[in-house]
């Protein structure tokens, strides 16, 4: 059970910040990561862990707030936002806030090191909400938002390159909980990536919907 006052603060003051982000990282994305994080944490707690659900909730809520400063170092900006938000001291100790900031900083899929704590692993895993069509849609959305001058074929090439680099066989994406639903869904996504005809069909269908 999340502390009601914390939830109210996050819903009124933090989640609205996502409305200013690109289409792939708006409020619905933050809410999805929150929900997935809590599912993972509750599964771990049911098996004997003692994770603080308020911390899990807050980390997920803040994890992409740093996108307001650009994508390249957004994970570091998110950590800084957590450390600087004095309101969080109403619910968390200084030590907890440091753990939360570290987790937000460690969530990025392209990070060179593993998350330092289990809280970081949870939000990193939850952020990889791997639903094949959603992943492809978000990749197209990002391209349309950030490279509006590209034509259809250039968007397709960018989408394929990103999907292969991140999600393909040998890609940089890492899953931190092998038994999570993400593992099976990643294999489904890789099947699409490895089938050029199917990938093109999915891309064309989604691109037509979003480009209208």
Summarize the structure in short:
The protein is mainly alpha-helical and about 210 residues long. Helix content is about 65%, strand content about 0%. It folds into 2 domains: about 5-125, Hypothetical protein af1432, CATH 1.10.3210; about 130-210.
User: Based on DSSP secondary structure assignment, what is the total number of beta strands?
Assistant: 0
Spatial shape: globular
Biggest pleated-sheet summary: none
Number of helices: 10
Please give the domain count: 2
Low-confidence stretches: none
Short key terms for the protein model shown above:
2 domains, 10 helices, 212 residues, single chain, mainly alpha, Hypothetical protein af1432, globular
Layout of secondary structure:
Layout: H1 4-14, H2 27-46, H3 53-62, H4 74-84, H5 94-106, H6 118-127, H7 132-146, H8 152-167, H9 181-193, H10 196-211
Helix pairs in contact: 1-3, 2-3, 2-6, 3-5, 3-6, 4-5, 5-6, 7-8, 7-10, 8-9, 8-10
């Amino acid at each position: 059970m999340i502390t009601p006052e914390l939830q109210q603060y996050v819903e009124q003051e933090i989640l609205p910040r996502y409305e200013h982000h690109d289409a792939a990282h708006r409020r619905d994305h933050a809410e999805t990561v929150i929900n997935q994080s809590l599912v993972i944490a509750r599964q771990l707690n049911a098996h004997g862990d003692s994770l603080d659900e308020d911390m899990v909730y807050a980390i997920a809520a803040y994890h992409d707030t740093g996108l307001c400063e650009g994508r390249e170092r957004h994970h570091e900006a998110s950590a800084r936002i957590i450390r600087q938000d004095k309101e969080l001291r109403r619910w968390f100790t200084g030590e907890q806030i440091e753990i939360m900031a570290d987790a937000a900083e460690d969530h990025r899929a392209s990070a060179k090191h593993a998350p330092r704590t289990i809280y970081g692993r949870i939000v990193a895993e939850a952020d990889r909400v791997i639903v094949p069509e959603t992943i492809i849609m978000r990749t197209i959305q990002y391209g349309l938002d950030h490279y509006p001058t590209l034509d259809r074929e250039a968007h397709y090439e960018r989408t394929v390159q990103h999907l292969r680099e991140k999600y393909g066989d040998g890609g940089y994406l890492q899953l931190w909980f092998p038994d999570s639903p993400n593992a099976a869904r990643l294999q489904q996504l890789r099947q699409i990536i490895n089938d050029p005809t199917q990938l093109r069909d999915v891309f064309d269908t989604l691109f037509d919907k979003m480009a209208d």
